[in-house]
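re: the backbone from monday

yeah here it is again, tokenized this time
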């Protein structure tokens, strides 16, 4: 009776890294490789991904449609929180990793596997996001990260490995960008981006046009929100997936949402990347306009502090933590009244809120008007200012006494 082979569940995309890893795992471990490809909205032909997995030696290939779950359970909570990493990055890859890792654990349980492998490098953030989630959900599972243990040291060497083993890949030495795409964004790293003095090339764009190539006329779109969640465009109710897809197309046509940044990775180094997030950029700007109508100053200021920490938690792969859950509870209470409509103007890379309304608005024209009104006695401001500035006044008096004035 032959000995049963070990089973390894591999996070698989069919791209350069995971294609090589599948073959390498079979050679090194003589194991059954079960691939798990997560459809989180990337532009891939998933029938070809499965075919490629089997052709490269997979025993079984799963493709999971996670788009709705990704939008409802990850994107919307992060959007509502206002989380943006280092003032620029809308966390597209960061949000997807814990969801994918959760499904890897589910498949491992289903298949009776005790090892999960992934293609994240030993220099990147994704290794932390995948493995932190796996540890949180099943600490008994062993993790294999080939980039940390094999002798391949560069993407050029991976291309050579693919050629020597007959593995079909799209990357070449000339077009060697490392990309990650989902419904929220696409990221680009490597290639000429590794020198921050290089301007990124126009051929990098996938979801949007360069701003110079946007139309000469602006586009307008009305976005309806309910409790901080976008629900309709121009009065048409849409699912979360359909809404983001529609805004991605519209925003992409106008060059909205492309950033070129140097960011601080969790592992301690800086990296340079280009991110395209057309629909997400529009939604964040629109939601911020709603917040300015419905939140008082203290609530908005404290929410901004929470947003900074929320962004760091998501970026660092700490989705499955009590603190993130507590932040969600806080945000849900605060955003219960974030219901209304924002008109967005899209033009040459800009997403501008130009009009907003909400039944929960704290804006009151009777109080705010610069014209004549019957509700605000301007003389009251004098007493308010005297009390508000009292500590400064006392400090000045005491200083004058000390100086003998």
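seq for it, each position gets an aa:
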């Amino acid at each position: 009776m032959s000995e049963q082979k070990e089973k390894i569940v591999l996070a698989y995309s069919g791209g350069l890294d995971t294609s090589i890893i599948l073959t390498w795992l079979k050679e090194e471990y003589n194991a059954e490789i079960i691939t798990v490809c997560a459809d989180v909205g990337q532009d891939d032909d998933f029938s070809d991904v499965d075919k490629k997995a089997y052709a490269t030696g997979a025993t079984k290939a799963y493709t999971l449609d996670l788009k709705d779950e990704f939008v409802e359970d990850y994107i919307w909570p992060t959007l509502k929180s206002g989380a943006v990493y280092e003032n620029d990055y809308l966390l597209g890859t960061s949000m997807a990793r814990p969801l994918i890792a959760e499904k890897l654990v589910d498949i491992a349980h289903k298949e009776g596997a005790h090892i999960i492998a992934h293609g994240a490098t030993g220099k990147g953030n994704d290794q932390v996001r995948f493995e932190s989630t796996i540890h949180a959900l099943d600490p008994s599972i062993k993790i294999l990260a080939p980039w940390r243990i094999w002798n391949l040291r560069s993407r050029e060497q991976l291309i050579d490995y693919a050629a020597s083993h007959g593995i079909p890949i799209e990357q070449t030495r000339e077009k060697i960008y490392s990309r990650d795409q989902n419904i929220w964004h696409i990221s680009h790293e490597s290639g000429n981006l590794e020198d921050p003095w290089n301007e990124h090339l126009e051929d990098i764009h996938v979801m949007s046009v360069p701003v110079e190539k946007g139309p000469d006329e602006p586009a307008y779109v009305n976005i309806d929100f309910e409790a901080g969640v976008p629900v309709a465009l121009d009065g048409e109710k849409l699912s979360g997936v359909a809404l983001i897809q529609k805004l991605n197309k519209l925003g992409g046509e106008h060059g909205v949402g492309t950033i070129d940044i140097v960011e601080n990775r969790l592992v301690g180094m800086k990296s340079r990347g280009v991110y395209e997030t057309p629909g997400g950029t529009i939604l964040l700007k629109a939601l911020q306009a709603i917040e300015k109508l419905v939140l008082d100053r203290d609530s908005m200021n404290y929410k901004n502090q929470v947003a900074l920490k929320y962004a760091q938690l998501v970026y660092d792969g700490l989705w499955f933590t009590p603190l993130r859950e507590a932040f969600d509870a806080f945000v849900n209470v605060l955003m219960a009244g974030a219901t209304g409509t924002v008109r967005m103007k899209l033009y040459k890379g800009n997403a501008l809120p130009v009009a907003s309304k909400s039944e929960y608005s704290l804006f009151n024209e009777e109080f705010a008007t610069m014209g004549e009104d019957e509700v605000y006695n301007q003389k009251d401001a004098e007493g308010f200012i005297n009390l508000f500035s009292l500590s400064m006044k006392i400090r000045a008096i005491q200083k004058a006494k000390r100086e003998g004035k």
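DSSP finds 13 helices and 14 strands in the chain. Residues 72 and 240 are 7 Å apart (CA to CA).
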